[in-house]
Amino acid sequence: MIPLNNPFIRGYRGLSIQRLLAIRYEDDCPLTYLPLHTSQAHLTDEQITRFECVFCDDFTVITEGQDVASELDARCPSLGVVQTVVHAVMADDGGTPVHVGDIYSHEAALEVVRRLTFETGHYSRCWEISSGHLPEEALQYLEDLASASTPTGLLFEAFRIPDSDAVGVKLIATPWVDDNLTFVEGRDAQSLHDELVNACVPQPLITVMQLAAQADVRILTFDPNVAFLEGLPTFDN
Predict the structure, then answer these.
(1) Is the Cβ–Cβ distance between 40 and 66 less than 8 Å?
(2) Angstrom distance (rounded) from CA 41 to CA 122
(3) Distance CA 167, CA 161 (A)
(4) Which string of DSSP letters, residue by residue, matches the chain?
(5) How far is CA 110 from CA 47, 59, 122, in A?
(6) Each residue of 155-175: pLDDT tens digit?
(7) Beta strand pairing status for 78-93 and 126-130?
(8) Longest dimension (CA), the chain
(9) 184-191 contacts at long range (C-beta below 8 A, 24 or more positions apart)
């Protein structure tokens, strides 16, 4: 069974920065956080903070010191004052936005994004997990592939590690997601899955390789002497 969450995924993905205005509008109400209307996107933080504004459910318009079109003003029934400006670092979790945290300058937010970004080729490309994540027959299949000199012709190749009980897999053309596979291979992830099944690759091995490849793992080793990866199925061998 494929886990609901992919345990190979580390860090945040699809990081972005959203400038939000913390608006104080009534003494007994908490601050409300809204973006600035696109027509005023050129305003600096200094031209926004502590300035009067009007707002609606979707955006804020600075009125103090600014010429505001009457139709735009009419769309904003609430009055307030911008308490502060925050630069919210956001991430994407399978299409769902995730709020990572608030930073108080754009430059500092850019630095947070830089540090959190796992750039391809630098992080999380090699994993070592317990061979107990494969049943005996799948592990034997992998060991037989590693001992053979003939390439699989699939998007993975097995290899042995000298003086070790471990066996490894080199995953090719990762990540195994539709956009990348379509660009590199001219097919989608389901087509690749069907090919692996038709080639009689054991399903437990397919499941682990798919999860790892979706997270852009390139090298995956199975070793009986290392810890289990929480979230993956285990087998008694």
Answers:
(1) yes
(2) 34
(3) 6
(4) ---SS-TT--SB-S-EEEEEEEEE--TTS--EEEPBPGGGTT--GGGTTT-EEEE-SS-EEE-TTS---HHHHHT--EEEEEEEEEEEEEEEETTEEEEEEEESSHHHHHHHHHHHB--TTTSS-EEEEEGGGS-HHHHHHHHHHHH--S--SSSEEEEE-TTSS-EEEEE-S-S-SHHHHHHHHSS-HHHHHHHHHHTT--HHHHHHHHHHHHTT--EEEEETTS---TTS-----
(5) 21, 23, 19
(6) 999 999 988 899 999 999 999
(7) unpaired
(8) 77
(9) 185/155
pTM of the model: 0.63
Which residues have C-beta within 8 Å of that of residue 106, sequence separation ≥ 6?
Answer: 17, 19, 45, 87
Q: Where are the domains positioned within the chain?
A: 16-116, 126-223
Write down the mean pLDDT value for the chain. Answer: 90
The tokens for 31 are 């601050």
- Written as one letter, the residue type at 19 is R
**Does the pLDDT value for residue 205 go beyond 90?**
yes
Overall residue count recorded for the chain in this entry? 237
